[in-house]
Amino acid sequence: MEQFNYSALHLHAVLAEGCFGSPDYAYKAVLKEHTILSQLSHPRIVQYLGYFQTTSSWNIVLEFAERGNLASFLDRRSAEGAFLNQHTVMAKFSDIADGLVYLHQRNVIHRDLKPANVLICVDNRLKLADFGISKIMHENDLNRTIVGTPLYMAPEVARGKDYDYKSDVWALGIIFYELCMLQHPFVDGLLKGRKQKFSVPQIDCQRLGYSTALQLLCDMMIQKDLTKRWTLENILTQFHVLVLMNRTDS
């Protein structure tokens, strides 16, 4: 763990400011992110470089992602009506899934997976970021704390029920749908406060020239019933992602 000299650092951009509600919460979030990130090393996880302190703050230093985040990318594509081809959809899905598999193997639940927390590097590869509310799981741990972003929160989390790594799989399914359709599957109902049935959303595979297998992949992840929602490792074992990157037939 390297401690940086603040004067030697160059600020590229402010990622967030004043969004934690209280100084104590902000400190705990930064400390948790430092604790988790300092134990992780993977090409699809934002690289932890070190930390520095000032008289009024405690800060972590991360690699710079030159191309911003996936949320901004999807917003631009949606505004332009520029849908992604299947190869690009699957490549980006694969990057996120690879990072998530690594986290789960290291007993970490992200708990706030969403496009804004997926960074895009100069080579267009994706990396997971923002581990301020993530949790390192221990044997027999139960999770009932309602945390995360409502639009990407699994039903069991929102209801205060027990949840595990599959809550991240739900969020990944929502992101996958957004990669395909450039919109959130449930945003209208959630923003209007309507009770959601969370039926599996339909991808317009025929119009977009996608393999119908992409709908099957979506079905595996966006399942309200935990017993029907697949684990990420099982999805990647059964699903030939590399094949789908280069195939569009149904």
UniProtKB/TrEMBL annotation:
ATP-binding found in the keyword field: yes
InterPro entries with a match to the protein in the record: Kinase-like_dom_sf, NEK_Ser/Thr_kinase_NIMA, Prot_kinase_dom, Ser-Thr/Tyr_kinase_cat_dom, Ser/Thr_kinase_AS
All copies of domain Protein kinase, residue ranges: 1-243
Taxonomic superkingdom: Eukaryota
Top EC class, one word: transferase
Key word Lipid metabolism present: no
A biological process term (GO) from this entry: response to stress
GO molecular function, one term: protein serine/threonine kinase activity
Gene3D superfamilies the record matches: Transferase(Phosphotransferase) domain 1 (1.10.510.10)
A Pfam family recorded for this sequence: Pkinase
Keywords, in A-Z order: ATP-binding, Kinase, Nucleotide-binding, Serine/threonine-protein kinase, Transferase
E.C. number(s) listed in UniProt: 2.7.11.1
Reactions catalysed according to its record: L-seryl-[protein] + ATP = O-phospho-L-seryl-[protein] + ADP + H(+); L-threonyl-[protein] + ATP = O-phospho-L-threonyl-[protein] + ADP + H(+)
Protein family per UniProt: Belongs to the protein kinase superfamily. NEK Ser/Thr protein kinase family. NIMA subfamily.
Protein name, as recorded: non-specific serine/threonine protein kinase
Species for this entry: Anopheles epiroticus
Taxonomic classification: Eukaryota, Metazoa, Ecdysozoa, Arthropoda, Hexapoda
